[in-house]
Write a structure and sequence with these properties.
The protein is of the alpha/beta class and 326 residues long. 43% of the residues lie in helices and 17% in strands. A ten-stranded mixed β-sheet has the order 3-2-1-4-5-10-9-6-7-8, with helices on both faces. The longest helix has 28 residues, at 217-244. The protein is elongated, with a radius of gyration of 22 Å.
Length: 326
């Protein structure tokens, strides 16, 4: 990699029970592209009534738990051998609540990316990033890449959603840095030949209704069109300035393709991900800690739940997981 950007040094991949092992193969391809270390992780979630289970099984609960962990480790070793027969990979198997153990392990070992297969929502023929996935998206400090079964191992078309409304941001510097992280991360995973990063900004002409309401009727349409065009020009200039910050690095890595689409982020990002057949959507999740347990913006969560493709969520600089605060 000759361009400045996200270059993971230590990747954590969470194994699953699928035959394809797409998350594992994607993580391995990314690790090889960046020369990164790769840890394979799994977790055994034990029932809360292990005491009863152990008594009825005639075994000490801790001994029984270790047997379950050992059994899981043997199963994963066999799966790893089948997927990568020429490699010696020793999995780490934890026991506890999966999302908690993932976050703790990633923090303890200095992992800078978590890759995991997205969880299907029972009864629905799509992936909605539920349960463990939602906890990771909200609470894991490092980027989280949730892969879906039909995605390519190595992304070629990456949709990077940014927010250029810096002037309306509560923390403009945080938003600027988050936008940059989104692009750097998108370019870091776009390793397929001819890969490109579509830099998407959803914009709205919020004052258009006011223009229509308070302009003399004969001039309203012309003035409203002028207003919308000026708003669009402002966003075009903001996009050009943003992409220019990557300077010469824009020529050495995956090409950045600007895209300005009018509409709400919820509508635009989902729609464009389908129209562009995106291999993955990379977006920032602006954390707010004012409400206990809420660490992802409502807009971001709504968008993620509407997507039919993989998502890679990036946190702002300085985000501290609530899991690690105690």
């Amino acid at each position: 990699m000759t361009f400045a950007g996200f270059s993971p040094r230590h990747i954590l991949v969470v194994t699953d029970d699928s035959d394809s092992q797409l998350a594992l193969r994607s993580a391995m391809a990314l690790a090889e592209a960046h020369g990164a270390a790769l840890d394979v992780f799994a977790c055994v979630e034990l029932p809360s009534d292990m005491g009863i289970v152990g008594r009825l099984a005639g075994s000490d609960p801790d001994t029984l738990a270790e047997k379950l962990v050992d059994q899981k480790r043997v199963t994963i070793r066999a799966r790893l051998k089948k997927t990568f027969p020429d490699r010696q990979i020793e999995p780490h198997v934890a026991r506890g609540k999966t999302f908690l153990e993932i976050i703790r392990y990633a923090s303890d070992t200095g992992c800078d990316l978590v890759v995991k297969a997205a969880e299907p929502l029972a009864g629905v023929n799509r992936f909605l990033f539920a349960s463990t996935d939602q906890h990771l998206l909200r609470k894991c400090a490092c980027p989280v890449w949730l892969q879906t079964p039909t995605a390519p191992v190595t992304p070629r078309r990456v949709l990077a959603a940014i927010d250029l409304d810096i002037w309306d941001a509560v923390e403009p510097e945080t938003l600027k840095e988050l936008n940059r992280r989104v692009i750097e991360t998108a370019r870091g995973i776009a390793n397929a030949p001819g890969a490109e990063v579509i830099v998407l900004h959803a914009w709205e002409a919020i004052g258009e209704g006011i223009v229509w309401a308070f302009t003399p009727s004969k001039d309203a349409r012309t003035v409203a069109e002028q207003y919308v065009n000026e708003v669009l020009d402002k966003r075009r200039c903001a996009m050009a300035r943003f992409i220019a910050t990557f300077g010469e690095n824009n020529a050495s890595g995956p090409h950045l393709v600007p895209s300005l689409v009018r509409g709400t982020p919820e509508q635009v990002i989902e729609e464009q991900s389908r129209l562009m057949n995106a291999d993955v959507v990379v977006m920032g999740t602006v954390a707010r800690t004012g409400i206990s347990g809420i660490f992802i913006g409502n807009t971001a969560e709504n968008i993620i739940n509407s997507l039919g493709c993989p998502v890679l969520a990036v946190k702002p600089d300085g985000f501290v997981s609530p899991v690690l605060e105690h």
